[in-house]
Amino acid sequence: MTFPARLSSYVVAGAIAAALLIYGFGQVSALLGAHDAEITAASVARLHDHAGLARYRAKLAAAEQRYAMTFAGELATADSLRQALRTGTRVDTVRVLLAIATHDSTALRACSVIVQTCAQRAASAEAEADSLAAQLKAQLAVHDRRCGLFGGAGVAAGKGTGAGLVLAVGCRLWP
After folding, report:
1. Which of 22, 42, 15, 3 minimizes the C-alpha distance to 134?
2. For 95-130, what is each residue's pLDDT tens digit?
3. How far from chain centre, in Å, is Cα 13?
4. Using an 8 Å Cβ cutoff, are 31 and 147 in contact?
5. What pLDDT, on the 0 to 100 scale, is given for residue 175?
6. For the chain, which residues make up each domain, given as ranges?
């Protein structure tokens, strides 16, 4: 086999080897990148979920405020009836005691709703915080794992002087 024929077969074999390497590195990159892409997509979904959860907690807070006003009004009314009974301005004791019990009962129900909505808001916020902490931990595990063709040039030092060019195919697997 003559030199030009050998050279052309080496070039063809090198091109096939390079194509196989590039294909292999592309597959590795896709495999590593798929998991990272899933984590990033989940992070984006969590970010979008936050707006809905914030609206939910705002509705609960508004309900709390409404019931707090009801609670305060009913309690003030019951206290004023107690004061009227104590000072003797109201003498119909049975009716006043019944009205006091009604207002206290309504205030107690409003207080119960306030406690429940507050607990729901707190549970929602804690669940979201735990979810975001777990997602952030997963997101921090995402690394730049590029695969591709890298090149460089440099000067060699030693007994003589020299310069070189490097063309390499590789993947970054570790951070």
Report:
1. 42
2. 999 999 999 999 999 999 999 999 999 999 999 999
3. 49
4. no
5. 55
6. 3-143
